[in-house]
Automatic annotation (TrEMBL):
Keywords: DNA-binding, Nucleus, Transcription, Transcription regulation
Sequence ranges assigned to domain Zn(2)-C6 fungal-type in this UniProt record: 9-37
Protein name as it appears in the record: Zn(2)-C6 fungal-type domain-containing protein
Taxonomic superkingdom: Eukaryota
Claim: DNA-binding is one of the keywords in the record: yes
Region feature Disordered, mapped onto this chain: 52-80
Pfam families from the UniProt entry: Fungal_trans_2 (PF11951), Zn_clus (PF00172)
Amino acid sequence: MVGVPRSKSCQTCLQRRVKCDLTHPECLQCSRRLTKCPGYEKRWKFYNQTVGPAKTESRTRSKPQNRVVEPEPAPFTSSRGHTIDECVEPNLVVRAFDLQGKEMFCSFLVACFPAQFASCGGRVDVNWIQYARQPILDAPQALTWAFRSLATLHLGRTYHDNEKITSSRHMYSRALNYLSDLISHPRYMRGAETLASAILLNIYEMQDGLSPLSWLAHARGLTTIIQLRGPEAHRTGFGTTLLKSCRSLLVCEAFIRGGRCFLDKPEWQKFLTEVVEAESRSAKGSQLGILVDRAFIEVSCCPRWVMETRTLINRPYNTPPSTPMPPSTLIQIMSQSRRKLSDLQQLLEIGLSRQSPPAHDTAWEAFIGPIAFNFLGTFAQSAMNGMRLAVALLDQLLELVRLHVDRGGYEDCALSLSENNPRSCIANPWAKLGSNTATWQLDFDPDYGLRRFYMTREVPGWMDRMMMSMGMLGVRPRDLL
């Protein structure tokens, strides 16, 4: 007898026991997994219906022999040694392993980014923990192995297990290979899962990198992926969470690279402003979070002002400008940005000074919104430190431009620099900037100036501090040898 399988699925979907969408020439299930679809051709299978009677007849004609009693298998195992769960559901072990890994990733997130998650987790539609726990149909292998690598690394460091740390590095390498395949595929290079995988692998590199600044190379990759996705892909849903998760990395990378951050472009500045206005009308909005987001819009332009000032000062006098921004325009824009940051800093200080006792206070609850009270002080202090660093940087840049204007004889810029602004820090951490050509090259030191230039509260890890300070914490001028 010839039998043909009743299912019309492809061979891969039949083996994986998943529903096939029957798309020709290749199904979407195989395309998402970046595997070649074997097609829908069915092979005939031959069944011998006389197997049962033949065996019965042979048994009756055969002589009785001494039968060897085989040991019975365990009650919960099959004859092949598999458990009953593996026989009924072959992928059960893999799913259990992924579920355990995602829960461990959630523990890692709360342990390493407590204030960052507390400040943004309740203000977005889908946060990282919700995204990790929700079932994702046919998740890319890059995302799966990124979750596994971070979870295993956290587990190994928690229990001081070097074998688990080594295993996490192998998982990280495997996730990088899968991510490379996703980025090279034109259909998935702009996907949210691709960006999520890149962010997780960037965080892994920050935790266990080859060098202290090796994570900056991954941050440049994040810049490319986000620009390919465009602003509208990050307006709502998990896209907003992805952008808020890595925006500080983008600013810090632009400082170290010595170039502009793409978030200072007009279309992105308009988009960031619209997102802030949308949150101000939302029920999940937080006045404290809105103040920090408005400050970030100004901070994202600081790498450009450093680049413009460096270009202006290094250019010889009485030569045509190499950039379209003249000194007077540069002075005006940086002064406006400094004024906005100072106003936002004052509003933040006033809002925190109104902190009331545990009794019900509608104004105070509207100010903090869904931000967890336990991490309110840490988040506000780190954000305020970021604002102070940005204001101090603009003060130094304006001073450098003033000296350059005085030496070059720009009469139209003299009045714009006459105002005296109060210092944001007792000692300006950017004082060395511009003293020498080599000082324009910025470095990153997460412990730079924690107690000398501004106050900070103890938080478990430099990554959380840097994220909350909008990428400003740790950036410093290069020391001269």
